[in-house]
Hints:
The chain is an alpha+beta fold. It has helices at 2-29, 49-54; strands at residues 43-45, 58-63, 69-73.
Amino acid sequence: xxxxxxxxxxxxxxxxxxxxxxxxxxxxxxxxxxxxxxxxxxxxxxxxxxxxxxxxxxxxxxxxxxxxxxxxxxxxxxxxxxxxxxxxx
Length: 89
């Protein structure tokens, strides 16, 4: 009986370890900041309440140049020149 329990614990532990390792690797593969991973242009942040609540460490973004959309890690943002800022009434 204990052989079966120990077997299940070992296989289950390896399964959990594999999932944790994959999560860490894919988290580190995501680019940091606000540049597109395809064309290296500055991306636009997409306001999404669901993503903000589910994954607060990520930034949903969309690239105006190539149309890429996805998640980026939070990081340093590209400064915007004073003439490029849009002033709302």
